[in-house]
Design brief:
344 residues, 2 domains, seven-stranded mixed beta sheet, 37% helix
Length: 344
């Protein structure tokens, strides 16, 4: 049997083929399940014990030799699996499709609000998300011992470069302070952005959310001007027949202050639930800028006055799209996101 194996070495070494079919026949003859080499392995049990080691080594070498020679013949005849990659490119074939996303519901609502206020002259402003105490609190009429600081649960940030206390901004009012410090009236700006508060995450609350705040400062600005601006926004966003009401409220940086509600209606069970049976839905907070805030930003309150307002984008988006769990905005579930807006 050893002689037979040695003869097969010479036979395999001289193999040749001119096409794919011949190569396949050689593969089946020598390496197939019923091929010559498989048969020799089956006869291995009949080899004398003193020859098993030598015979086994020769069989392994023979199989490796056959795989090498037949593999080389495959490449020469173009019968390898890589041959398909050498096909000519057909430009008439349709292109490969690729997945596209859609706009996030918060982005849709944010952009619509920006567009509405841009049409009446409000400019876009932006600022840092990590703020110092002055811009986030003190300039907005929050003294260190003021109880109003307790209204906002803050994420404080360690400052490795100085002693000044830093925090993740709790509102985009800090951007308005920077605008007032950087320019003199007239000022008409809106400040959209992400804000942070140390709150437990639930279906109705999150430690991250988004706001849009507006500011208008000029000579002889009145509460009536603010009301008319907010009524315009409500009709543009919620519909021409929208009604609003203003309820007295409190914010440290505005005086007088108010909450604005829109008439949502009581047409179904959901309306009763989200309006708590009143039919009115709270949308935003607003008020006349406190004179102390103007002074802190080097604006003369004897000459100028102004109003400010702020709204949460998540609350408005939830009401618009009928979403009952705030966490869905942050989970990035494609099944949820693909329902909104046109593809990018």
């Amino acid at each position: 049997m050893l002689d037979k194996v040695k003869e097969l070495f010479n036979e395999i070494d001289g193999l040749s083929a001119s096409n794919k079919a011949e190569v396949e026949n050689l593969r089946v003859k020598y390496l197939g399940q019923k091929g010559i080499i498989k048969g020799l392995f089956a006869d291995f049990r009949n080899v004398p014990a003193d020859q098993k080691k030598e015979f086994g080594q020769l069989l392994n070498d023979l199989r490796a030799k056959a795989e090498e020679v037949i593999g080389g013949l495959k490449e020469k005849t173009g019968s390898t699996s890589t041959a398909g990659s050498k096909k000519e490119f057909d430009a008439s074939l349709p292109g490969y499709p690729f997945l596209v996303g859609s706009r996030h519901p918060l982005s849709l609502v944010r952009q619509e609000i920006i567009d509405i206020f841009s049409r009446i002259g409000f400019q876009l402003s932006d600022g840092p998300e990590v703020e110092d105490d002055w811009h986030n609190f003190s300039a907005l009429n929050f003294p260190e011992d003021h109880p109003a600081r307790d209204m906002q649960d803050t994420f404080f940030v360690k400052n490795n470069y100085g002693k000044e206390e830093l925090a993740l901004r709790t509102h985009t009012s800090s951007v308005q302070v920077r605008v007032m410090e950087g320019q003199q009236p007239p000022i008409r700006t809106i400040s959209p952005g992400r804000v942070f508060r140390n709150e437990a995450i639930s279906a109705r609350a999150h430690c991250i959310f988004h706001q849009i705040e507006g500011l208008y400062i000029d000579k002889d600005v009145s509460f009536a001007d603010m009301k008319q601006t907010l009524l315009y926004f409500a009709k543009e966003f919620f519909g021409e027949k929208t009604k609003i009401r203003l309820r007295p409220s409190y914010f440290p940086f505005t005086e007088p202050s108010a909450e604005m509600d829109i008439w949502w209606g009581l047409n179904n069970e959901s309306d009763h639930r989200i309006t708590k049976g009143t039919g009115w839905l709270e949308i935003l907070g607003c008020g006349m800028v406190d004179p102390n805030v103007l002074k802190n930003c080097n604006i003369d309150p004897e000459e100028y006055s102004g109003y400010a307002f702020g709204m949460g984008i998540e609350r408005i988006a939830m009401n618009r799209y009928g979403i009952n769990d705030l966490r869905m905005f942050f989970e990035n579930d494609v099944r949820f996101l693909k329902q909104f807006g046109a593809a990018l």
